[in-house]
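Internal ticket - ligand job 469, nickel (II) ion:
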Amino acid sequence: MSTAHQPPASNFIHANEIRSRFSRAMSAMYREEVPQYGTLVELVSDINARTLDAQPALRAQMAQSGELERLDVERHGAIRVGTAAELATLRRLFAVMGMEPVGYYDLSVAGVPVHSTAFRPVADAALLANPFRVFTSLLRLELIADAALRDKATAILTQRQIFTPRVLELIAQREADGGLADADADAFVREALETFRWHSTATVDAETYRALQAAHRLVADVVCFRGPHINHLTPRTLDIDAAQAAMPARGMDAKDVVEGPPPRNCPILLRQTSFKALQEAVRFTDDAGAHTARFGEIEQRGVALTRKGRALYDQLLAEVRSMGNAGSAAPNYEDRLAQAFRAFPDTHEALRAQGLAFYRYTLTPTGHAHADSAAAADASLDELLAKGWVQADPITYEDFLPVSAAGIFQSNLGGEEQKQYQAHAAQQAFEAALGARVHDEIALYEAAQQRSIDQVRAVLRGTAVVDAA
Ligand code: OOG
Ligand code: NI
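stdout (structure tokens):
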């Protein structure tokens, strides 16, 4: 796709760098828009510093994996869009920053009329540089029962343009040339940010807003505004229980329970909590009003699970949540969760040996000393671990959890209603709207683990090639 007048590739700003600039700009914008987010970032930063001081082994492990460096910049955000065209253009916009759609999440099962993916980097090096992720949901208007209201919402959505003309040009330019030079990259960041900005003026009158809100609060949030305002940004904490406990003292109205697995010695997947969405003044075309959408969230990430591990997680969680049909709002939820998860091994040795979680294998200094020896080349991975020639470090879970996401949605829509939709995942329809397949997240972890094993093997056999990627 190169053209004669294209600047040399070395002038292009790396996608990782554009993503970092964008994530920084987004964080600064959200701090201005929602000052409590700034408070949350400070709280998390204090708690992370304390946790690392108290746990030198954790610090050493995170330093060795490279994750210590990314910790302070690590964020995810979330947006919700209304049409296939919006979703498809977002895919192209995120591609400029090296972010690809990973995973399919059907939230209709939890009474939220959307399905979603997460745009994020996928390569090991890109994840280490900056793992910025955006959980992106597409409204499913077909789940709205009232046909007239559905048509009205569709008409409103087809009239809006959530991208600036300049960002559309820059996306096309990057697709044609393969990159963006410095000034264009900065322009891209500035223009892309406009799509995610909050607008306190709605595009509809108060009555339309109320009608859409009655269908579902989420429908009003998506349809009535000029763009898909970022609705939260989430820093990563190393001790979510400490952070949750400290939130009220800093003036934050914390959600009652932490979503995801219970506290453990070896964190798995993802644990999340949030402070509740703010009621904000908005102007309809004919009247003043209020809207609840934006909130703050924190998360703690653990090891990625294999298909077997994930099946066990889903099974144990379902056992607890199905009791009394109350989900995480049931009494004694946390006790019952902890009780059920006793069935989930809680040492890395057991998680690894039973094939429940993914690990990245590297040679230790002793292992390196034995490279190219027959003893090393013939040994199994377990033998190499037992000898201390190879070490296994947990691969961090970079994705989301549908049940947790639903809990986050529910607690932040304001209002208590629980809508029921027929559960029907529609991954193909979602991918058709997106204009691409989504990555299977578990296959990505599997490949990362396998690459690390291949690399260890190659060094031990003396056939390692210097890996350029
Ligand atoms: C997204 C909620 C899901 C998470 O962290 O699971 C989410 C939304 O409310 O739009 O962000
Ligand atoms: Ni979130």
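Auto-summary: The chain is about 50% helix and 15% strand. The two ends are 22 Å apart (CA to CA).
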